[in-house]
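so my prof wants the structure for this chain in the tokens format not the other one, which i didnt know existed until like an hour ago. anyway here's the sequence
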Amino acid sequence: LFGQLDRILDGGGERLALVWQSLDRGQSVILGRLWDGSNWGAEKRLSEGSGNAWTPSAAFGGGKLYIAWDSYNTGSYQGFVREWNDAAPHRVTVGDNFSVRPSVAVTRAGVPLIAWEESDPHWGKDFAFLTDRRGTPLYKNRRIQVVFAEGGAWRQAASVADALPEQIRRYVQQPRLAVDDSGRAFLAFRSRTSTNTSRVDNW
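here's what i got, hopefully its the right format
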């Protein structure tokens, strides 16, 4: 089970969403079920495609349920989201950056916000002696991106990095989003405590 109980209860206190990561014939997929106050509904596969899907996050708001996760469908980890009743998931992230561990929150008006941690393209594929394509070492950097839905598109929120002291900007990760009843968004995250020296396992 991924997510906290207060994040996946419906605002009315009657519906409950259970979203989890499971293996299906060797593939990691995202599944979910809804509790209507009396019974559990049928299990529903939320992720699609042939790539493994990881780290789901779920949130109710405005009578809607959104689920976000990251997937290797495109050959690099990217973020996807799906409203429970949507016919298919939608890709949120763009480009080839390493985009993982999404966190979703939904306002009372039903507007989803999604945060995720990001590194540079070809993360973990720094085998330069085998190819001319340059990769990104595992512990080079992390940054947090936040977007929200508006007019059928995903809009970039204010820069998280600009709100942080410069000395901790290089490696921030594992965002957690929440919104209050007025629609204000709050973001918690983890930062490395030492940023002046690279880790010895920066392969």
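also thought this was worth mentioning. Residues 5-8 form the longest helix (4 residues).
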